[in-house]
Specification:
Layout: E1 12-19, H1 24-27, H2 34-42, E2 56-57, H3 59-63, E3 72-81, E4 87-95, E5 99-100, H4 115-119, E6 123-125, E7 153-155, E8 158-164, H5 173-188, E9 194-199, H6 206-218, E10 223-226, H7 235-246, H8 258-280, H9 290-297, H10 301-349, H11 353-356, H12 361-369, H13 374-377, E11 378-379, E12 400-401, H14 408-440, H15 454-457, H16 461-465, H17 468-496, H18 512-522, H19 526-529, H20 535-550, H21 564-581, E13 595-601, H22 606-616, E14 622-625, E15 628-637, H23 644-648, E16 657-662, H24 665-685, E17 695-700, H25 711-725, E18 729-730, H26 743-764, H27 770-774, E19 778-784, H28 792-800, E20 805-807, E21 815-822, E22 825-835, H29 836-845, E23 850-856, H30 860-871, E24 879-885, H31 889-893, H32 895-910, E25 914-919, H33 932-940, H34 942-956, E26 1010-1012, E27 1018-1020, H35 1057-1069, E28 1109-1112, E29 1121-1124, H36 1134-1145, H37 1160-1173, H38 1179-1184, H39 1216-1219, H40 1222-1227, H41 1240-1245, H42 1278-1290, H43 1304-1316, H44 1322-1325, H45 1329-1342, H46 1353-1360, H47 1365-1376, H48 1381-1399, H49 1401-1404, H50 1408-1420, H51 1427-1430, ...
Parallel strand pairs: 1-4, 1-8, 2-5, 8-9, 9-10, 11-12, 13-15, 13-16, 16-17, 17-18, 19-22, 19-23, 23-24, 24-25
Antiparallel strand pairs: 3-4, 6-7, 14-15, 20-21, 21-22, 26-27, 28-29
């Protein structure tokens, strides 16, 4: 031990580390860990620790300065601080034995003693010996730190004896322990401190360690320290303990067992590792390198601590793992992105479930590769796999690597995609099923909240399947549809009630009274009630409609772009422009034509035969006709191609005509079909305007074999087809001819072609000038309704398809000109096509010679608008009504179309107008010739129409200085200045602006005391209405009215001064809105025998009238200029004689009226609105206000103050559907009785419900007991089954089912046919649903006993009086069980059927209440002769109503249902008669009240009003 000195430098100690050494034979394959222990102590940093130190050296290395030919190594020194803070320096020497790598024997050194002797030496000396670092240092000393052993010598102060406690390598532990024991003995001789270091404790063998401890315990003061150089456990402790033994002044260190020390050491490592890993995790870019990161972190304490403990290599490995994790995380995210994007790609490329449902993933991949969008979704890489290529760094390339699809995840996505498509298909199906469920629920109304509907669908399968969000989405869609439909139907209803809006003011806001009147009329309509929950929207629609009526222009048209005016202008602009440009010079040489191109159409070789015959009669294809030679180019065609026009019309061959030859019904039909195809194709492609007018000639071929019996039929049929086609028909000449075709036939056909060509030349060649176009002989207005379900092309095709059609004058975008021969001359006809709303202004302001009124037979609103317009047309102007539908079959197959077409034809008959139909599927009805008769009629009445127009214009101009008749103000500004007109005194025609500000007429509440004359003036109801048409002059809508000058006092006699003041005040207050109607009713204090004066311009012409009115033809602006002379009026005596005298004086000259007074249909429709809105007082009460009658005046009809007592009104209108009942026929001739006589009416009706004797034939089925008609296997009569099945299959939604009576003849025929054949099919009979329903009711009425037995009537009535609903229903259920089994089965069957009918009440308007009214007398058949019974009729009806409503409860053990509100679904009765029969026995108020009747066609068919 070195001596202590007082120098300030720390003390220095030398420690010799000894242990088993020698050759491999002595120590085994590996040492005992002396070098590793020294290395860990001297250089504890992980980077400086070397686990391998060899003792086998070459001679050179042994002789190097590090080993220096010694068998010991100098490890250097370590400065260590103790717990007391005192430092010391420890020099470490390792005693070993180096082996020659050649001889594998110990190297020879200066000290030749054995290891045990040498290891125990206390003094060591070796000059210039360098410090040992590692094996790699040997021979390369210059590359490592070079530090010499101090002074070349050291004195050993203590020994560290190493004992390997691991398993060892080919070494016996006992041998090691024996060696150690001998070594210890030598060491102990030196008297130096000794400590045993148990090395390699990390691989410790427990009993070895125990033996070492036992060895130490046998020695005095020998300490064992358990160490592990690999994990740096207790290494420093063993050296520190040895130093303490050398320096007793130092604190004795605590010797910690290996396991505890190891845990402490590992905790340090783990903590440092965690800190280092967190530090490394700050690196987020997997492209970062260790060099870059370590340079940034080298000064960080956590980094340094981990490097010291674990080393750079581990740190780099940790970093590499982190980088790899970052990369894998990036790849994982990219893969996840690709997998997430895969469903979208599959949806794009494989969206069709039917295509891929059965495909495997590999098959689906092949399908995808062939898709055009494949490259936009996937990328095929040259190198694979994709995650080892640079594609992972292309973050902007969202395409999926195609090799990724070969993974399990991708296949799973595909399977999920297929399942998603299947589930989505199922979901869509369920949503649609739920939508259909909602559509079937009739109780859902527009605007109804979802919460109120859930109860209806809670048990629905589809509702349970889909989500709440889907349910709400489907319901919202359903609501949008039904709301839109309800709004459309509401708008349609407003158009159907067009007459209701005639007397609106020109101000934008109608009066409160007017709005109340409108709501009163419309409130009974189901389509009005349908928007009950959307009242603001309904009001908005109504006001919008009123705004349109107030200002009807194409810009404000409610049909938008479907406005008729817009469509007409577009069509005419295109068609007429093409026509003008297409005026061909095809026939420019027709005057000197020498060649005819003929197309020959026939069947079965007839065309070729005719061509051969013509060629036979020709010479070199030249034919002599009427002294001229014509070259013929014949093209026979057996037209089997669907495109005939391409064969007809080519640049090389343009036919002048077509010969159509036939010799049988089949060939004639074939020709008709071919011509229809040719014309249709020509119309569609519009290749040439004149192609559609190709001349056709029908030729009947002679039957050579024998005189055919079919020849007359063929002749007749051919002539009919020729008439339809407007083409010549060449008949077989009289006599017998050997050939099929005669020369006379061919010449006749050729002459017809030449005439047609000449006609085309005459029309086409001279292009009219503007001046020519303005000189129209006739001005016709065609009116059509906006939004009608037909194309404008269809209604204009009779004109546009004509070769004589041309454009009208510039600026008239809605007009065209026709050049037609009418009578003996060619006439120019101007056709102006307008919507009805635009026609209103034309009707008043312009000269019109005739109207063509078009309506759709599929739309009631179209007919309503036609009626409204026609009502105000002057009856001197001819009218042509045109019904438009698809085909003639519609009339027979569709009742609604049949009704509207019948109504149109009926109106035409009433007003002596023309009626025709246009069919969209037929070409034969689109020829201009359909209007020829109408044009002739117009031409015939032209002078009368113009005279009437001039006369009216003169009267209108009496009080104004205007010279030019202004055009309609409807489309322009509201600031108008119009001439006064006698027609200002008219009643309100359609859309008439009558002001509310000045009231010259009685209040609405008093209007029942007055009647309107035909001018719109009101007068007492006792006035005579005969010839009241005479005030009517025109068919015009009055514009806003200028104040009319007061009539001179000389023309007024006994005018009420108070009333005069009112008139003057009104004129001064609001002159522009002053109504022109004058009161005609005398006040209470005025003698009724005196007459009221009227303004001069409303007095009729008489002897003193100077009719000096001239018309200058037209000015440059095509306006008529009127020149008037002063009018001298002699009014003497007029007032004395009153109204009837004026009539009598003017009865010789017929003044124009309006069509509404000529047609009962039109008049009764307008009348019905008046009666509905003015029916608060009865007709009799209306009469009581009149105290006196004019002497000699005819009393008007008391039943209807509006009805004119003209003879033509007395007969009524026949309607087979309502006149088939004998009892109803009797009513036809009776007047409506007064209310005081109502009590007698039920007596006449009581027999209606008695068992009738209605059959006039014997039957073995009808009228038989019910038990005879059924069997246990078939408990329902076959007839009942057939009728119910037919009704439910074809007419469950028929409006008024069981209420509207069917044709009695049809009902009888049904029963008669069934009598003859029980297997008869009702569908094959072609009967209506109402007829079958009537036959079914008749079956029950014919039964000997009612279906509900008489014996149970009283019980049913008593039970119905029970107040508690549940108790009442259970009692009724018990009573029903008492029915005879046969009656019970049939009763259940028919009630179930009626319940199904009632479920469709929104469309058929037959609620349970309505059905019970119709059915209870038939099912219960009470005794109407019994007066006591009359008081219980309502109870009887309620019993049947309850059975219908609670059908499921009574017969199928269902739940009690809440009855719907019957008031909300009561429809207006279809006609008055149908209300009488079921209601009279109930002693309800008389049904024929005007406010209840919304009569359809025809109104009041029985003439009882």
């Amino acid at each position: 031990m070195m001596a202590k000195n007082k120098e300030p430098r720390p003390p220095s100690y030398a420690v010799s580390v000894v242990g088993l050494s020698g050759t491999e034979k002595d120590k085994g394959n590996c040492g005992v860990g002396k070098s590793c222990l020294c290395n860990r102590f001297v250089r504890s940093k992980a980077d400086e620790y070397y686990p391998e130190h060899t003792s086998v050296l070459s001679t050179i290395d042994f002789g190097g300065r590090v080993v220096n030919n010694d068998h010991f190594l100098y490890w250097g020194d370590v400065t260590q601080s103790g717990e007391d803070g005192i430092e010391c320096r420890i020099h470490v020497i390792e005693q070993t034995e180096f082996i020659d790598d050649q001889t594998f024997l110990p190297h020879r050194s200066t000290n030749l003693q054995p290891y045990i002797k040498r290891a125990a030496a206390s003094k060591l000396q070796s000059a210039e010996k360098l410090m040992y670092i590692c094996t790699d240092q040997l021979g390369l000393e210059q590359d490592f730190e070079q530090k010499q052993m101090p002074e070349g010598k050291l004195n050993i102060d203590g020994f560290l004896l190493c004992i390997d406690v691991s398993q060892g390598c080919n070494r016996k532990f006992d041998d090691q322990l024996k060696f150690v024991n001998n070594l210890y003995i030598q060491l102990s001789k030196s008297k130096k401190p000794i400590i045993i270091a148990a090395t390699k404790c990390d691989e410790c063998v427990d009993h070895y360690l125990r033996e070492v401890q036992a060895f130490a315990s046998n020695k005095k003061n020998l300490v064992v320290v358990e160490t592990s150089a690999r994990f740096n456990v207790n290494v420093e402790t063993c050296f520190t303990a040895l130093v303490q033994m050398m320096d007793k002044t130092r604190g004795k260190p605590k010797i910690i067992p290996y396991l505890d020390a190891y845990k402490t050491q590992r905790q340090l490592v783990v903590t440092a590792t965690d800190k280092f890993e967190k530090l490394v995790q700050t690196v987020r870019d997997y492209h970062a390198t260790w060099k870059t990161v370590s340079n940034k972190l080298k000064n960080h304490p956590d980094y340094e601590e981990y490097i010291n403990l674990e080393g750079t290599k581990k740190a780099k490995n940790t970093f590499s793992k982190h980088i790899e994790q970052l990369k894998q995380e990036h790849i994982r995210k990219r893969k996840e992105e690709y997998i997430n994007a895969l469903p979208r790609a599959l949806n794009t490329l494989l969206s069709n479930l039917e295509e891929i449902e059965l495909l495997s993933w590999s098959e689906a991949l092949k399908v995808m590769e062939k898709r055009p969008d494949f490259q936009s979704c996937f990328v095929v890489l040259e190198k694979t796999p994709w995650d080892e290529t640079d594609h992972i760094d292309k973050v902007n390339d969202r395409r999926i690597p195609f090799d990724l699809l070969n993974t399990v995840e991708a296949e799973k996505v595909y399977q999920n995609h297929v399942q998603h498509l299947i589930s989505e298909k199922r979901r869509v199906e369920m949503k649609e099923k739920f939508k259909k469920t909602l559509e079937k629920i009739q109780l859902i109304s527009p605007g109804q909240p979802w919460e109120e509907v859930i109860c209806f669908v809670v048990e629905d399968e589809a509702f349970k399947y889909i989500t709440d969000a889907d349910s709400k989405e489907v319901y919202a869609r359903h609501q949008r549809e039904i709301v839109e439909k309800a709004k459309e139907e509401f708008q349609e209803m407003l158009f159907e009630h067009s007459e209701l809006f005639y007397d609106l003011d020109l101000n934008a806001t109608p009066s409160t009274d007017k709005m109340s009147e409108i709501h009163a009329v419309l409130s009974g309509e189901p389509r009005y009630k349908a928007l009950q929950k959307l009242a603001p929207d309904r009001e908005s629609l109504l006001l919008k409609h009123i705004g349109f009526v107030y200002h009807p222009t194409k810009e404000t048209c409610l049909s938008g772009q479907n406005c008729m005016d817009i469509k007409v202008e577009e069509l005419l602009a295109n068609s007429l422009l093409q026509q003008d440009h297409g005026r061909s010079n095809l026939y420019h040489d027709s005057a000197n034509i020498d060649k005819l191109n003929l197309f020959i159409l026939g069947k079965d070789g007839l065309a070729q035969e005719l061509a051969n015959e013509i060629r036979t009669q020709s010479t070199d294809d030249e034919y002599a006709l009427d002294g001229k030679i014509y070259e013929l180019d014949l093209r026979p065609v057996d037209a089997k191609s669907p495109y005939l026009l391409t064969q007809l019309w080519t640049s090389a061959f343009k036919p002048h005509g077509c010969f159509c030859v036939f010799n049988s019904i089949e060939s004639l039909t074939f020709i008709g079909d071919c011509i229809a195809k040719i014309r249709a194709e020509a119309s569609q492609i519009r290749r040439d305007k004149y192609m559609a007018n190709l001349s056709f000639t029908l030729i009947l071929a002679n039957q050579r074999d024998s005189v055919s019996k079919n020849l007359p039929i063929l002749r007749h049929q051919g002539q009919q087809l020729a008439n339809k086609l407007q083409c010549p028909f060449v008949d077989v000449p009289a006599g017998t001819y050997p050939r099929k075709f005669n020369e006379a036939q061919i010449k006749q056909a050729l002459r017809g072609v030449l005439e047609a060509v000449k006609h085309n030349f005459d029309v086409v060649s001279p292009v009219p000038t503007i001046k020519d176009l303005s000189e129209a002989d006739l001005r016709i207005v065609m009116c059509a309704m906006c939004g009608d379900p037909f194309s404008v092309d269809l209604i204009l095709s009779p004109f546009l398809d004509s070769h004589s059609c041309s454009a009208a004058q510039a600026g008239q975008n809605n007009s065209l000109m026709l050049d037609k021969i009418i009578g003996e001359k060619r006439r120019r006809i101007q056709i102006t096509i307008l919507s009805y709303h635009s026609s209103i202004g034309v009707r008043k302001d312009e000269l019109v010679h005739g109207y063509i009124l078009v309506y759709s037979a599929k739309r009631k609103a179209s007919m309503g608008m036609l009626r409204a317009f026609l009502s105000e047309v002057q009856d001197t102007i001819p009218v042509q009504l045109v019904a438009v539908t698809d085909s003639q079959a519609d009339f027979f197959e569709n009742e609604a179309i049949k009704e509207l077409m019948t109504e149109g034809e009926h109106i035409a008959t009433e007003i002596t107008a023309k009626f025709t139909a246009l069919y969209s599927l037929s070409q034969y009805h689109r020829q201009t010739e359909v209007f020829t008769l109408f044009f002739s009629d117009v031409l015939e009445k032209k002078n009368m129409i113009e005279s009437s127009y001039m006369s009216d214009s003169t009267r209108e101009s009496t009080h104004t200085s205007e010279d030019v008749f202004p055009r309609s103000p409807r489309g322009g500004s509201l600031d108008y200045n119009y001439p006064d007109s006698e027609d200002d005194a008219e009643g309100p025609p359609p859309y008439s602006p009558i002001g509310d500000d000045v009231r010259l007429l009685p209040a609405p509440s008093d209007r029942s005391k007055y009647r309107l004359d035909l001018e719109g003036n009101e007068y007492p109801i006792h006035s005579t209405p005969i010839n009241c048409h005479d005030h009517e002059r025109n068919h015009k809508v009055p514009p806003p009215i200028k104040p009319k000058p007061l009539v001179p006092r000389t023309s007024v006699k006994k005018l009420d001064p108070n009333l005069l003041k009112t008139i003057e005040a009104g004129i001064g207050k609001n002159p522009r809105k002053q109504p022109s109607r004058v009161p005609a009713a005398p006040p209470e204090d005025t003698d009724p025998s005196d007459n009221y004066a009227e303004p001069i311009d409303t007095i009729y012409k008489h002897k003193g009238f100077a009719d000096d009115i001239y018309a200058v033809p037209e000015d440059s602006q095509n306006r008529i200029i009127k020149v008037r002379t002063p009018i001298v009026i002699n009014t003497q005596g007029e007032e004395e004689n009153g109204f009837s005298d004026r009539v009598s004086k003017s009865h010789g000259e017929r003044r124009p009226s309006k069509y509404k007074y000529k047609s009962k249909t039109l008049f009764s429709k307008a009348k019905s609105y008046y009666r509905r809105t003015n029916s608060d007082a009865s007709d009799d009460e209306a009469f009581t206000t009149c105290k006196a009658k004019k002497k000699g005046r005819h009393r008007g009809s008391e039943e209807d103050p509006l009805l004119s007592p003209v003879e033509t009104w007395k007969g009524g209108i026949d309607n087979p559907a309502i006149t088939s009942d004998q009892e109803l026929d009797e009513k036809k001739t009776k007047k409506k009785p007064h209310k005081v006589k109502e009590d007698k009416k039920p007596k006449k009706k009581t027999k209606t419900f008695n068992p009738p004797i209605r059959r006039n034939w014997e039957s073995n089925y009808f009228g038989m007991p019910l038990q005879d008609l059924v069997t246990p296997e078939k408990p329902i009569p076959l007839f009942v089954e057939k009728c119910v099945q037919f009704i439910e299959d074809t007419g469950l939604c028929t409006e008024g089912l069981y209420r509207v009576s069917g044709n009695k003849t049809d009902q009888d025929n049904i029963q008669k046919q069934f009598d003859q054949d029980h297997n008869i099919s009702l569908e094959s009979m072609g009967v209506t649903v109402n007829a079958v329903a009537g036959a079914l009711k008749a079956f029950f009425a014919d039964l000997p006993d009612p279906l509900v037995p008489y014996s149970l009537h009283q019980e049913l009535l008593e039970t119905s009086k029970i107040m508690d609903k549940t108790e009442r229903l259970h009692e009724l259920k018990e009573i029903v069980k008492k029915f005879h089994p046969v009656n019970y089965d049939v009763f259940r069957y028919i009630i179930t059927h009626l319940n199904r009918v009632s479920q469709q009440y929104k469309t058929n308007y037959m609620t349970a209440d309505n059905l019970s009214i119709c059915f209870w007398p038939t099912l219960m058949r009470p005794d109407f002769e019994n007066r006591e019974f009359l008081s219980t009729t309502k109870i009887h009806q309620s019993v049947i109503e309850t059975f219908i409503q609670q059908c499921q409860f009574f017969f199928y053990n269902g739940e009690i249902v809440e009855a719907p509100n019957p008031v909300a679904c009561q429809p207006p009765p279809s006609n008055p008669v149908q209300m009488v029969e079921p209601m009279v026995p109930l002693q309800l108020p008389p049904p024929l009240q005007p406010q209840l009747i919304q009569s359809q066609l025809p109104a009041d068919p029985l003439g009882i009003i």
